[in-house]
Amino acid sequence: MEPKPSRMHLQGQSAESSRQETELQHQQSHSSAIEFGTVEEMLRYDAAQVSPPATLAARLRDALANEPRRRPAWWRRWLPRRRKE
Description:
- This protein is mainly alpha-helical and 85 residues long.
- It has helices at 7-31, 39-49, 54-65, 74-78.
- The protein has a domain at 37-85.
- The model has no long low-confidence stretch (mean pLDDT 78).
């Protein structure tokens, strides 16, 4: 006949298993980390993962549509264009 495990022994095992699970989750979260060379790369990655709310996207689209067109650079206005032959 096997002796029954004591209550303290079971609590110790559950604490140990929860600690191991926490360590495993911690390791998994670190292994999925992505390193970026520049801030711009990080922002591009984030933009690809997250889309803005529909109302914000519509406001941005409207604001960009109402932007005045840029004038050509002064040197483009003064110098003639070369013709491709």
